[in-house]
Amino acid sequence: MTAETIYALSTVYGKSGVAVIRVSGPSALQAVAQMTDIDVSVIKPRYAYFSKIKDVDSRETLDQGLVLYFNAPNSFTGEDIVEFQTHGSKAVINSLMDNLSRLPDFRLAEPGEYSRRAFYNGKMDLTEAEGLADLIDSETTEQQKYAMRQMEGGLKNLYEDWRARLVKILAYLEAFIDFPEEEIPSSVIADMKNTVFKLEDEINQHLNGDSIGERLREGFRVVIVGSPNAGKSSLLNAIVKRDAVIVSDVAGTTRDAIDVHLDLNGYPVMFTDTAGLRETEEEIEKKGIDIAYSKIHDADLVICLFDASQDNVQVFDKIRNSFKNKALFVANKSDKLSPDQCSNLKKSGCLVISAKYKEGVDDLLQKIGDNIKERFTSNSSLLITRRRYREALKDAVDNLRAFGFDKEIELTAEDIRLAARALGKITGRIEVDEVLDKIFGDFCIGK
Question: What are phi and psi of 115, to 5 degrees?
């Protein structure tokens, strides 16, 4: 790695009760020696010292706080780490950071550098590091739960098991390449074929779990569509319980797609209000309608909303035929309907609501939540949370599919080698330099 010692503020900059400044590297204890009266020759790891923290030159007291030492390799980064836990004023933070900058071979950490050092020192693999990033960014309970599962090694263990099985096959093949006079026993060939077949099937099942993992990180997409004045904007406002979008009796008020984020039973959901679907010659409105159809195509769930006092569900025949597996039909303006009309709509499979008076909106949210929970539960054993995982897994499957003994054994071995390499790119076992900057660049400075 490097002989440099890094430091950074690991808590939010600003006024707070406590601030944590973290130092990592071979000279971490020099910060304690230079800025406190603690004897570093007898300092105890994982022991909290209450101490005055002083200016390295004037020895003026800057603050009083806790000093903790974590010795290598038993630390987050695998290096010596020192933490200063001080009062969280800007003046204290700035003075401590300035003093650290004056120490020889100390420098401010780059974004994600602590976690990057932890990776290089074997404290975590890339999936665990990305799980940590997801935990820091989590906003809902389900995001938190799955980030913890990934950070604790759930995906790493799965991918490393697959890779170990491929490496075992590769070892056999390499042995037969080195000793070409030895004929490969038919039982060994059968065993290798069986292992590859099972692996291909397991990875395909993992891939077929939809994009539920990415959705858990980014938000499930629920798009509200319907004719002008069906009440789409009123429904979105009722869902988020605030005036998120403009409501007007003038048809065509909504010209663009408007996104609103919501925590729904622990799941991140992005609701999108769209332009009313109708035939029009007005250029800007036509673009809004094109955007609406694009949003429908990318949605996880489409709320097909219609004014039940004027229209019927047949207005969505086009959407029903193209997106029937993700369409939810909702009859609005129940306040203008008779009890018999409402009953008939319910019997036909429509949810009946009044967005204006917020009647039935809770039932609609429950239906949406149940839909998301069902999808998540059915695929939630181990989720693919990033596009790069999916791409690497597809590469592995392509190489496993090409595997066979109907060609030169060197080419057969190369198929296995490439499949193992694709899996290794996910966890960071091999050839990861090209993805490190992207992964760790998204971290905050102190992590």
Answer: -70, -35
Burial of 143 (0-12, 13-18, 19+ CB in 10 A): buried
pLDDT of residue 248: 44
% of the chain exceeding 90 in pLDDT: 51
Ramachandran assignment for 188, one of left (phi > 0), alpha (psi -120 to 50 degrees), beta (any other): alpha
Spans of all domains in the chain: 5-109, 127-209+385-440, 215-379
Mean pLDDT of the chain: 86
State the fold for domain 127-209+385-440.
Four Helix Bundle (Hemerythrin (Met), subunit A) (1.20.120)
- Residue 283 CA to residue 371 CA, distance in Å, equals 36
Q: Residue 266: its pLDDT value, please? A: 87
pLDDT category of residue 219 using cuts at 50, 70 and 90: confident
Instruction: Please state, in angstroms and rounded to a whole number, the distance separating the CA atoms of residues 126 and 153.
Output: 10
Residue 215 is predicted with a pLDDT of 78
Q: Indicate if the pLDDT at residue 282 is higher than 80.
A: no
Q: Does pLDDT of 330 surpass 50?
A: yes
Question: How many CA atoms, within 13 angstroms, populate the side-chain half-sphere of residue 24?
Answer: 28
Q: Can you read off the two tokens belonging to residue 433?
A: 């330099």
Residues β-bridged to residue 327: 302
What is the Cα–Cα distance from 164 to 311, expressed in whole angstroms?
A: 60
Q: Give yes or no for a contact between 285 and 272, defined as CB atoms under 8 angstroms apart.
A: no
> What pTM was computed for the model?
0.69
Q: How far apart, in whole angstroms, are the C-alpha atoms of residue 435 and residue 424?
A: 12
CATH class of the domain at 215-379:
alpha beta
Q: String of b and e for 263-298 (b: at least 16 CB within 10 Å)?
A: ebeebbbbbbbbbbbeebeeeebeebbebbbebbee
DSSP conformational letter for 48: -
Bridging pattern class, strands 81-88 and 61-70: antiparallel
- The verdict on whether omega for the bond into residue 73 sits within 30 degrees of 0, i.e. cis, is yes
Q: Give the pLDDT mean for 356-367.
A: 92
pLDDT band, residue 431 (cuts 50/70/90):
very low
Does residue 39 contact residue 60 with C-beta atoms inside 8 Å? no
Cβ-contact 337, 309 below 8 angstroms: yes
Please state which architecture CATH assigns to domain 5-109: 2-Layer Sandwich (3.30)
Confidence of residue 251 (pLDDT cuts 50, 70, 90): very low
